[in-house]
Every structure is written in structure tokens, then in C-alpha cells.
Amino acid sequence: MAAESCIECDVAIVGAGFAGALIANELGKARKKVIVLEAGDRVPPNINDYMKRFYKATAKVPESPYTPEVFDAAGSLTDPSKVNAGRPTVLSLLPKGGFGDWTDPKQSYLIQKGPRPFASTYDRVAGGTSHWLGTCLRFVPADFKMKTNYPSVPQFVDWPIGYDDVNPWYGKAEEELGVSADVEEQKYLGIQFPASYRYPMPKIPSSLVDLAVADALKSLSADETKFLEMETPPTQIRVRNLPAARNSQPYKNRRACAGNTNCIPICPIQAKYDPTITLNDATSTGFVQIMDRTVASDIVVGENGRISQVNFIRYAGPKTSGCVKAKIYVIAANGIETPRLLLMSKNGGRTANGVANSSDMVGRNLMDHGLDADTGISLSRPADHVGHRGFVRWTVPQQAGRIPYRYRQ
Ligand SMILES: Cc1cc2nc3c(=O)[nH]c(=O)nc-3n(C[C@H](O)[C@H](O)[C@H](O)COP(=O)(O)OP(=O)(O)OC[C@H]3O[C@@H](n4cnc5c(N)ncnc54)[C@H](O)[C@@H]3O)c2cc1C
Ligand code: SF4
């Protein structure tokens, strides 16, 4: 493999997803020279390629519009070890006997040893946000004090910052993403907004399903929902519209949502925000360069304990290796790939436990939208907390029938 010379810049960012794009754009506006290493393919000039791939896909899964291809030429699930920057897909993470087999890394990409699969995915090229839904919830203040609020759960910790510290930054992010929501409706469980704050756009109108669920909840008695063991009976939960990074009216030269619900995996009219929008702004500053098809492979730590460079492998043409040197490094490669890169970077044994891992917590306690198989309740918060916020997800089949059932009677 040929070696490229080391590139110098102010800030090196690994990952052009949501986090990497926002940081790159702010730094570009501040006239800092930024290099973004991105493992995935180049962002095409328009979404036609993505749309074509999506239309042709036999299985319309979140990953179908994007590369690497979900299926190989023979019609089998792509073996992630045979492509340059693989990733899990919802098909490859299915139980054996379906399309894929989450226990086999040759199919699922992830090596999983626990009893249940982590079955969420992410994408290459502008990250998982390409196929995200656009839901933009703020944390409630209690989320920052989980240990204090739930002392019986040993793994909970309190954050070193609180809601008030992030409140103004939420506003900045909501402006960049273009979030549609109603401030008064979003004031609950201690969520406050700066005086005179308005979301960039009015809320997306309630759907027929929203209205039907709100009616159904009103018609239930507390007894009928006891089985959920929620501190606040669901009958008292108000159905609120979710803040959404979807345009409820034209915003920043993008059209208003047409309501066709194709947000996952791709909005054909870009009414839903995705990071290609911010990446475009970032490169337009003239200070940000995105190196696509470039996989960061090693974080090099110097004798002084500081990062001295990030090594990469580039597959834009014949494979080459290279490195980037910066004053500051940002590893924004997502919840799975960031710890992977940190843990892979052993520096000839000097960081045998990986980089930035004095806590030994890097790569542990991965959490996503866990669902309790019996109740269908999101496990990302304890049940009573879940109940407060209305985070009941009617996605597990037996539960999916329960509340709507009475409504149908
Ligand atoms: C189907 C789906 C729906 C979702 N819906 C929502 C939602 O509605 N609301 C919400 O808040 N969240 C949602 N999420 C979650 C959200 O997409 C992620 O939390 C978010 O994308 C994380 O952003 P990130 O920048 O940390 O990482 P990512 O967006 O994953 O970006 C990481 C980038 O880094 C690159 N990368 C990784 N490793 C390397 C390497 N070694 N070298 C170079 N580049 C590398 C990747 O290719 C990728 O482009 C959803 C996720 C999925 C899968
Ligand atoms: S236009 Fe369709 S795909 Fe785009 S944001 Fe609206 S509902 Fe989603």
C-alpha cells in the first residue's frame, strides 16, 4: 500500500455524521482549517442515486438507499468483510432463519456475544442521520440526575452538567436542523426555554393516528392499564406532537414536508434534515475538506500522552495509507465505531487498553432503544420515568394490539 504524506490542519474530525458535520461547520465559519475523515462513500451531488437504489430495493429497509449495497450481486446479504467500510443492517441483524443471522459477524458485521441482539444500525456517508426519523427530543432536567432520582439502579450516574447548561445549545442545534414544534406544548417535566424562544417552525400538524390515540387513552380506565405498572397511568398522559427536524413550512431553501411518511430511509424532497445539508455549508466556508472513502485506523498517542496524529487507509482509488496531524482531534464516528477506534489504537502496547480509556468504560454499556419483550416499553429509562414522558412504544406485537383494541371496539 502506497503511503501519502501527513496532512496538517487545525482540527481533524473522524466521521462526517451528525456530530462531525455540525462541528466542522462551526469551525469552518470560525476560519479553522478542518479535515474530516469519512469512511463512507462520497456524498453525491443530488439524491437521484440514493432514490434509484431505494426504488429498486426488494426490501425497503433503512439502509437500502445507501452504500455499501445491502445485497451482493448474487442476491445474498453483502458480507461486510468483503467491502471497504461495512456496517450492520436491519436485515443482517435478524435472528437466524430470517434474512440474516445476528450471531454470525460475516453477516451482521457486529460481534455479539450476549443473549439478545443489539439490533440497531447506522450508515456510512453522513452517518445514521441519513436514514433517521427526524425526532428531536430534548432531555428533561431529571435525565441529568439519574443516580439522584433512581438510587436503586447501580449503573446510573449523575451528569457533571445539567439541563440549564445545554439549554442555549439545544436552541442552536434546533436552528441548524430546522425543528418544527410548539414551545408551550414541549414545556413538561421541567423543560424550560429561554425567554421569547420559538422553534424555527410551527409544529407538524397532528396525524389521524395521534388524534385517535389521544381519544383512545381518554376512553380507558386506570384499571385497564394497571398491567403496565406505570407510576402515572397512561390515561393521564397527554399526547403531544414530537419536535421534528422536518420542515412544516419552507426553511433554508428546502421545501415543506408533504406528509408521505418515507422519512426512514430517505426524504425524496429533503424536507427532513440530514447532515449532507450541514456538510455542504461546511465545505462552502472554504476551510473544511471532507476526505471520503477514508477510514481512520489508528489514533497515535505521543510520548507526552497527547494525540500526535490519526492514521488512515484510503480506498478512493488504489488503496493508500496516510495520516493527519492537528491541534485538536474530534472522534465523531458514532456510538459503536468511536469506541472501536479508541480500543483498536494500542500504540505498540503503550495504550494496551485503548485510547482515552483510563476508566475502562469505553465500549461498555452500549444503550439504544431497548424494548422490554413483555411490555413493549422502552428500556432506555426506568418504567415510571418512561411513563412520565409518554415513551410507551406500541411496537411489540402483543402490546400493539392492546390499547388500540378497545379503540377499535
Ligand atoms: C433507523 C434509525 C432512525 C433514527 N431516528 C432517530 C430520530 O428520529 N431521532 C434521533 O435523535 N436519533 C435517531 N436515530 C439515531 C441517530 O441517527 C444517531 O444517534 C446519530 O446518527 C448519531 O450521530 P453521530 O454523528 O454520532 O454518528 P453517525 O451519524 O453514525 O456518523 C458517524 C460517521 O462516522 C463514520 N465513521 C465511522 N468510523 C469511522 C472511521 N474509522 N473512519 C472514518 N469515518 C468513520 C461513519 O461512516 C459515519 O458517517 C436513528 C437511527 C436509526 C438507525
Ligand atoms: S416529505 Fe415525506 S419523507 Fe419528507 S419529511 Fe415529509 S413525510 Fe418525511
What can you see in these coordinates?
The protein is of the alpha/beta class. Strands 1, 2, 6, 7 and 8 form a 5-stranded mixed beta sheet that branches. α1 runs parallel beside α8. The radius of gyration is 23 Å and the shape is globular. The N and C termini lie far apart (67 Å). The protein binds flavin-adenine dinucleotide (FAD) and iron/sulfur cluster. The site of flavin-adenine dinucleotide has 34 residues, from α1, β6 and α9.
Helix/strand layout:
Elements: E1 2-3, E2 7-8, E3 11-14, H1 18-29, E4 34-37, H2 48-56, H3 105-108, H4 146-149, H5 163-177, H6 183-186, H7 208-218, H8 276-284, E5 288-291, E6 294-301, E7 307-314, E8 320-325, E9 328-331, H9 334-344, H10 383-389, H11 397-400, H12 402-408
Parallel strand pairs: 1-8, 2-8, 3-4, 3-9, 4-5
Antiparallel strand pairs: 6-7, 7-8
Helix pairs in contact: 1-8, 7-12
Flavin-adenine dinucleotide binds at residues 14-20, 37-40, 62, 120-122, 124-129, 131-135, 264, 295-296, 332-334, 337, 341.
Quick take:
The chain has 409 residues and is of the alpha/beta class. The protein contains twelve helices and nine strands. It has a domain at 2-43 and 274-349: 3-Layer(bba) Sandwich (FAD/NAD(P)-binding domain), CATH 3.50.50.
Keywords:
binds iron/sulfur cluster; binds flavin-adenine dinucleotide; FAD/NAD(P)-binding domain; 12 helices; 9 strands; 409 residues; alpha/beta; four-stranded parallel β-sheet
